Amino acid sequence: MISMLKLQLHWQILIAMILAVIAGYASGTEAGLGGVTFYSMYAFVGGLFLSALKMLIVPLITASIITGVAGVGTGKGFGRLGSKTVVYYLSTSLLAILTGLFFVNLIAPGVVNGMPAGSLMGLEADVSGIVENAQGRGAVDFLTVFERMLPTNIVRAAADGQMLGIITFSLLFAYYMVRIPEKYGSVMTNFWQAMMLIMLKITELVMKFAPIGVFALVAKVVASTGFDAVLPLASFAGTVFLALLFHSVITMPLLLTFIGRVNPIRQYQAMSPALMMAFSTSSSAATLPVTLDCVEKRAGVSNRVSSFVLPLGATVNMDGTALYECVAVIFIAQAYGIDLNMGLQFLIVTTALLTSIGVAGVPAASLVAIVVILTAAGLPAEGIGLILAVDRILDMCRTTVNVFSDSCGAVIIARTEGETDILKGTSGNEESVPA
Ligand code: ASP
What we know:
Layout: H1 2-5, H2 9-27, E1 32-33, E2 36-37, H3 38-72, H4 77-107, E3 111-112, E4 115-116, H5 118-121, H6 128-134, H7 143-149, H8 154-159, H9 163-177, H10 182-208, H11 210-225, H12 234-260, H13 264-281, H14 284-298, H15 303-316, H16 319-335, H17 342-358, H18 366-376, H19 388-416
Antiparallel strand pairs: 1-2, 3-4
The protein binds aspartic acid.
């Protein structure tokens, strides 16, 4: 009875978000209590919560990939799962980019009354840091993804939170773990399964503090950004938002319905804590523990599929980011009055696809990728300054889409692998244990 009266976690988080908007707006960055600003309190509490999530990433990805691959066994399953995952990542990212391309051409947010908007907005922000960061990079930057896949030192990769390196190592480790004599292999398999279970338990514990953490993170953003920054760029922000919305309420549900043969509404319900977490943290990497928890326990996807698709997805599959890069670059070109022919638009689409793979799942990571694309397309890199004011708000939205696409990938791939126990109820699988 008592548990029925207790508000479900996603409602608690939602209420926390609403309160945070009010509190952040009311306090701003200056107001305080006893010499301590509310802003610094938000930053402190939000930082603690983020650290707790990040603390779990390395052991959780490792354990999750190793147990997942072990679950695939020694048959042909590994290659099949791998190819499906790659096809899903590439095709959904491409669909997202094309959606962005359509909306930015349709709405043309960079053109105001037939004039390029750049002259109206001015370029006040200092962008030298971001531009410098992107210097010397090109579309070839994509190659660094391969370099990162093979780190020289796995311990350092783990210490740096370098996910791609950890993923390659864990994949190889697990591949051979199930191919050595059973006597030795089973010790390791048990060890990593225990590790996985423990990490999921700690994730649950951290999630108990989610309403407080989310409150602090959102209040901090609202206190520092406010809504004034959004107004001059409302048309650009609106275009990104509309395109992201289209991708998540039309494209993804269509894929879920026709390929996954599941009810998309159930998917939103199951993933709501992870989506809200992605929105508040602006980081797919930090959200990963929650995404894994929701996909396995609430959506009912097997550990075998989720632990393969999700960690990789959090690193390389970024639909929202790819879409954003495309819209941002074309908006900047419009604002400078530069005409983009078909060839250039094609170049932007392909570089957005490639760079979105290399973008890390951390806040504001796309900015550097956008400068890379601007440079590759011969557009003014300083144009990035036009969008900085609204980047944080849009980062929250695109990260939510990134995480949602990863979770849909897990569901769709699991369904094509013949799993039937998916999205039968939002909490029916709470007690599931990795195979
Ligand atoms: N913040 C995004 C993520 O973590 C990456 C980006 O687009 O900046 O998914």
